[in-house]
Amino acid sequence: xNLGIVIPTYCEEETxxxxxxxxxxxxxxxxxxxxxxxxxxxxxxxxxxxxDARRRIVRRGAKGGRGSAVLEGMRQLLDQDVDxxxxxxxxxxxxxxxxxxxxxxxxxxxxxxxIASRYLxxxxxxxxxxSRRVLSAASNRLARAVLGVPVRDYTNGFRCYSRPAxxxxxxxxxxxxxxxxxxxxxxxxxxxxxxxxxxPTTFVNRSRGESSLDAGEIAGAVRGLARIxxxxxxxxxxxx
Length: 240
Ligand SMILES: Nc1nc2c(ncn2[C@@H]2O[C@H](COP(=O)(O)OP(=O)(O)OP(=O)(O)O)[C@@H](O)[C@H]2O)c(=O)[nH]1
Ligand SMILES: [Mg+2]
Known about the structure:
The protein is α/β, with parallel strands linked by helices and 240 residues long.
């Protein structure tokens, strides 16, 4: 199976080199695309020694949001010969060792979207302060109550998409540009009948670099949730 991996980055110069190296060791044949919105060259410079024909970086020049970076990366990977696409963060919160398992399970279980979930009985979250746990648990509960897709983790950006799912997402999503895009693609796929699954993961809080989650992101997510709720109702009507 030909695997593509998209990694959105915003000021990840402290982790990107080690991540690219680890990914190369885990899945040497994967095509990797870093989509970097950093305001300086530092992330691109740190990545440069680990780039080649299969592992590339695109710089967009302005902060466009995690979701929009992933859409851009997926579009570019779909131009190449990939059967599935993994999205993951650059800060080692998403263990690269799980990448092969995500891709294999997606295929063997005939799924279109497989979410590495922090909220299944065997999942683990390490080093997350109580404030982040509460925020994440509350936003997941709210998203599930409003959007109704029967998964536990709407907001972990460690996922694997089949090629048809990635095509649907790049062709139809874009209501929200930040973290809320994860909920949008979930709704867009699930209510069109794509098969969605979850597996446990271990989420490790970032130990280096800086968080890009701020009040603006959270406000954007709340506004985005209302728009995605309208999308859900429209898809349910269309399917009825
Ligand atoms: N290209 C791009 N990447 C982004 C943007 N915002 C965040 N990212 C990346 O998206 C991923 C997730 O962002 P994080 O800052 O780790 O967000 P988080 O995991 O919710 O919060 P912390 O881990 O606590 O910092 C990281 O790889 C970021 O570098 C953006 O506007 N553009
Ligand atoms: Mg993070």
